[in-house]
Structure to design on (179 residues):
C-alpha cells in the first residue's frame, strides 16, 4: 500500500488532517460510486484520544468529527470505536483488534497510537513489532478497498505536563524514533 506524507500546519485539526488524507487517497471508495449503501463501517483504533478524552465534550474528539464529516457528505457511517484509554500498541493489537475480527470489514480504519508507548518507556523495537502485528491483523479484517489512516506521535514535550515536569522517556529524539 503506498504511503502519503502530508505536512500540515499545527493549527489544522487532527480530524481535518485525517479526513483530508482519506479523501486524497480514496474519495470514491469511501462514498461509493453511486447507488445505494447499507452503511460504511468505520473502525477507530487507539487510546484515550480515540475515545474522545481531552475533547470537550467527548463527542468533539477526532473520531466523532470524522464520523460527522462523512455523514455530512451523505455517507451512512457505522462507527466502531474500539479505543481504550491508556492503551499501548500491544494492547491495541491484542484487545482492540481481537474484538475487531468479529465485525464487518471496515471501509475506513483510523489508528493513532504510540504516545502511551513513549511515556511508558517502551522501546522502539517493541513498538515496531506491535505495529507489524497491528497492520497484519488489519490486513486480515479489511477488504481490498479499505482505507487505513495512521497518525503519528505528536510532540509530547510541548504538553504542559511534560514542560512542568520533564520525563526522560518523553524526548524529541524518542518521539522522532517512534515516528
Amino acid at each position: 500500500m503506498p504511503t502519503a506524507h502530508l505536512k500540515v500546519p499545527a493549527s489544522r485539526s487532527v480530524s481535518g488532517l485525517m479526513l483530508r488524507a482519506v479523501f486524497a487517497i480514496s474519495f470514491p471508495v469511501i462514498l461509493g460510486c453511486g447507488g445505494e449503501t447499507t452503511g460504511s463501517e468505520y473502525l477507530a483504533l487507539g487510546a484515550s484520544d480515540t475515545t474522545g478524552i481531552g475533547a470537550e465534550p467527548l463527542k468533539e474528539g477526532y473520531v466523532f468529527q470524522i464520523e460527522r464529516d462523512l455523514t455530512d457528505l451523505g455517507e451512512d457511517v457505522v462507527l466502531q470505536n474500539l479505543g481504550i484509554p491508556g492503551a499501548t500498541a500491544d494492547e491495541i493489537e491484542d484487545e482492540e483488534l481481537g474484538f475487531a475480527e468479529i465485525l464487518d470489514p471496515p471501509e475506513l480504519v483510523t489508528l493513532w497510537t504510540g504516545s502511551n508507548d513513549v511515556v511508558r518507556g517502551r522501546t522502539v523495537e517493541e513498538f515496531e513489532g506491535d505495529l507489524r502485528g497491528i497492520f497484519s491483523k488489519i490486513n486480515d479484517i479489511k477488504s481490498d478497498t479499505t482505507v487505513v489512516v495512521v497518525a503519528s506521535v505528536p510532540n509530547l514535550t510541548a504538553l504542559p505536563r511534560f514542560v512542568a515536569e520533564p520525563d526522560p522517556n518523553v524526548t524529541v529524539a524518542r518521539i522522532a524514533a517512534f515516528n
User: Anything to note?
Assistant: Strands lie at 40-46, 77-81, 108-112, 147-151.
